[in-house]
């Protein structure tokens, strides 16, 4: 039976997300196995997202310049090769902190290129009619893999044998590449009449984003939200192990609570958007996520923390799906890779800063303080930047509705 292109893209993304979820639980646990210093553990999380700051401006120009399908296949092969090197290092007990930092940075760089290519391909695979549905499916699989099944498996596998989760990640990357070999869609946009430098081409994406009020304010809002999320998540493993005195498996299961919430959020988001509208859905989701993040520091009950994790996952996935669809619907295909990468540079470039900041704050002020400050940042940014995004969107949409115009190609 021959699948639709959207099914191959979904299957590839689901396999990669499962591997990412296993890695998200296993790498912090491996870092804690190497060192208990909060700053050092947070540095591993920061290294995973540092590529956004270093390469986020140019990666979209690369995605728009080359065949996106072929680029995605090669990127998955690179990620597989990096993971096999890490497997070898863990097998011979040579996974030192510097080696983990290098591996995290290179894996994060490859993941940045892959994610940008997937988001640029999504409107090509389904066009306008299925945009929300495929984004919800990709985000749901990402939630299941990265926050639900993956972290639980990563924690359990690491407790059984530290080598096992990294072998499993390599297997998921191989499966992801295999699905991509079956994907048949146009991967290259129209060639420009004159080829310019990557910097000049990337600047076109920046110019478009800065001139589009909705995208501009949304990107800054996402940056503030991710700053808080990263500050809390970077030290969550230490909070669980040191303050709550739980095992690595319990840490993975707490992450799973966020994954269950994310899956529920993906299933409910279309109904929520019909009820509230796109930007109001983002505002409501980010407010609840901020309150749930702060709530982690206000209780010693692991069950209540699990509830907060569920709410954060539900709202975080809702925010992500709606924001991604909103961005794709108002961006021309020829600029999709560049606008996506510039948006991610602004929106996700704060991740390493938040991770390092969260580690430093936990080291000096205590393991619960990053959660309180992160929640305050998330709520405050929503009440300012979120409302500005809504105003810009209503002003820019004909008729003043809260639904974006169709994608311009």
Explain the layout of strands and helices.
Blueprint: H1 5-34, H2 38-49, H3 51-65, H4 68-91, H5 97-126, H6 131-160, H7 164-180, H8 198-211, H9 213-234, H10 236-243, H11 248-276, H12 278-295, H13 302-329, H14 336-348, H15 350-365, H16 369-396
Membrane topology: Multi-pass membrane protein
Keywords: Cell membrane, Membrane, Transmembrane, Transmembrane helix, Transport
Transmembrane segments: 41-63, 84-107, 163-180, 219-241, 247-268, 275-296, 302-322, 342-361, 367-388
What does the model show?
This is MFS transporter. It is found in: Cell membrane. Residues 214-409 form the Major facilitator superfamily (MFS) profile domain. The chain crosses the membrane at residues 41-63, 84-107, 163-180, 219-241, 247-268, 275-296, 302-322, 342-361, 367-388. 82% of the residues lie in helices and 0% in strands. By secondary structure, it is an all-alpha fold. Helix 1 (5-34) runs antiparallel to helix 5. The longest helix has 30 residues, at 5-34.
